[in-house]
From TrEMBL:
Entry-linked InterPro entries: HTH-type_LysR_regulators, LysR_HTH_N, LysR_subst-bd
Lineage: superkingdom: Bacteria
Domain HTH lysR-type: 1-58
Organism: Marinobacterium weihaiense
Name assigned to this protein: LysR family transcriptional regulator
Amino acid sequence: MDLRSLRYFLAVAEQGGFTAAAERLHIAQPAVSMAIRKLEQTLDLQLFDRQERRVRLTDEGEVLARHARHILQAVNDAERELHELHGLSRGEVRVGIPSMLGSYYFPPILMAFRQRYPGIRLEVVEAGTRKLQQMIHQGDIDMGVIVTDTPPDDLETHSFLRDQMMAILPRDHPLAHADNVSYDAFFAEELVLFKEGYFHREVIDRISREAGVTPHIGFEANLIPLIKQIVSHGYGITTLLAMVVADDPTLVARPFSPPVWLDLSLAWRRGHRLSRANQTFVDLVLEQATHRRDG
């Protein structure tokens, strides 16, 4: 029993005859008769009562017709959904992004994606990079942004941004007039930092261990507007990407000496085939990254 036979069978049942069914199907009438005869032989059942001029379904035929309608409808639905996905009119993207990038780097990308593919549902999860890796493994998100200084072997990564972590200072801070900020000078200050698990906190923890110092952490917060307010009022300094304070006249970004570079990538489970919607999102992120570098 194949789909073509079921389509021919339903056409005969709905048209009430083999000739009318053949006309609707745009095929020769003998082909319809042969397909129905083969279907009856396969099932070892009589599906039509042919004693009258207008053929009618037998009881067995009625049962098959009910199931055939469901089967063909399901096939049609599947074909339509696959066609829609191919055309990117439907689908879902679940991406995890740390708050710093989610607030200052990704909004134009997310809006561009939404404008191009309004039928695709976009779910954005905010979390630290370590949490995002865990969520990728658990299947809670399709992909996430991670730091790829030491990329995990079980994740496939595509780099989209290389940027410096900067010391962020009030404009009237003595270090604000320096060309750069040494690690010793930075760690001599009271610090405002993200909580553990976020990439910018991990960078500071790593540098402090390498320098053999214990940071003076006055505030821990994951709310970037709060961090900026605390720093601008002189209650500590922090480290962020320069894009975060680019439009804030009360804050100054200065590079570290030696500089601290971050390589950020989109990551997903290695060996996991991305859906067309997810692959399209990755392509857009990489496309925007290329435009950013070239611009």
